[in-house]
Specification:
binds zinc ion, about 300 residues, two-stranded parallel ribbon, TIM Barrel, eight-stranded parallel β-sheet
């Protein structure tokens, strides 16, 4: 029945939680990771190694790493914005892959990590090389690929040229992130295919936020255009920092429902993801934006 396979990267422990005001205890973060593993996740973004004063939610990154289940078949990703973060992630001895971030606009680059767009490409390449030198792998996400909260529209040709420069460091993957949830499916299809053409055989990953309700349509467009990896967050946790109160990342269970029903295999267990959504709502003390978990299972188990 399946015509295609897509890998899902579970980002709830990092991108999902990062902007949450409620400080989640380390044990609950590890429980979330264990539940994602139980549902079949094999790549998980577990923490970011950033300044704890800027992102208090990630202050326990090292403690989360120390509690990670020892699994030979799982890739644990640590997000890093500079070499200091890369060194911290490597020093844990528990991170398998560094995720670097290049930014498609100067406005967000400077606000988020004190780097212009060009500088962020150089730093990301340096992080990928450091990952390899430490016998890990490294990949890069291009943030604000579809629009910037400060600078507005982002040109396709600029993102393609960034991807070409990043590809020279031979990353494991290049991701296109709709950081503020402004993309539409036509733009996604155009950019994914242009970047895939420019950097092949490096795989292209897509990272969508559902801030304006286009998240699932954008994931579908990306998969059709050649993205082989999709970021998603259980429950749709992960608000956009520039749109308080808006919906978060695309929900893993919603993405899995859509793709599997459409004949694309994800390797994830929908019922276990829905259970985790309900558990996570208890941890967070609120209803989460994911939709599939609020509807009856179909087809019934
Ligand atoms: Zn995000």
């Amino acid at each position: 029945m399946y015509t295609k396979n897509v890998e899902i990267v579970e980002v709830s422990p990092r991108d999902g939680l990062q902007n949450e005001k409620l400080q989640i205890v380390t044990a609950d973060k590890i429980a979330l990771i264990e539940r994602a593993l139980e549902a079949g996740a094999r790549r998980i973004e577990v923490a970011s190694f950033v300044n704890p004063r800027a992102v208090p939610q990630m202050a326990d990154a090292e403690a989360v790493c120390a509690g990670l289940p020892e699994r030979g078949d799982v890739t644990y990703i640590g997000l890093v914005l500079n070499m200091r973060g890369a060194d911290r992630a490597i020093a844990t001895g528990r991170i398998d892959q560094l995720g670097a971030v290049a930014v498609a606009s100067d406005g967000l680059g400077i606000a988020n990590q004190g780097q212009s767009s060009d500088q962020s490409v150089d730093v990301a390449c340096e992080i990928v090389r450091a990952a390899k030198a430490a016998e890990l792998t490294g990949q890069v996400t291009i943030a604000a690929s579809f629009g910037c909260p400060f600078d507005g529209e982002v040109a396709v040709r600029h993102v393609v040229s960034m991807a070409e420069r990043l590809a020279r460091s031979e990353p494991a993957e290049i991701a296109l992130a709709d950081t503020i949830g402004v993309a539409n499916p036509a733009h996604v299809a155009q950019l994914v295919s242009a970047v895939a053409d420019a950097v092949g055989p490096v795989p292209v990953r897509i990272h969508c936020h559902n801030t304006r309700g286009t998240g699932l349509a954008n994931v579908w467009a990306a998969v059709q255009a050649g993205a082989s990896v999709v970021d998603a967050s259980i429950g749709g946790l992960g608000g956009c920092p520039f749109a308080p109160g808006a919906a978060g990342n695309v929900a893993t269970e919603d993405v899995v429902y859509m793709l599997e029903r459409a004949g694309v295999a994800t390797g994830l267990d929908l019922a276990k993801l829905i259970d985790t959504n309900h558990w996570l709502e208890g941890v967070m003390g609120r209803t989460l934006p994911g939709m599939v978990a609020r509807a009856p299972l179909f087809p019934a188990a």
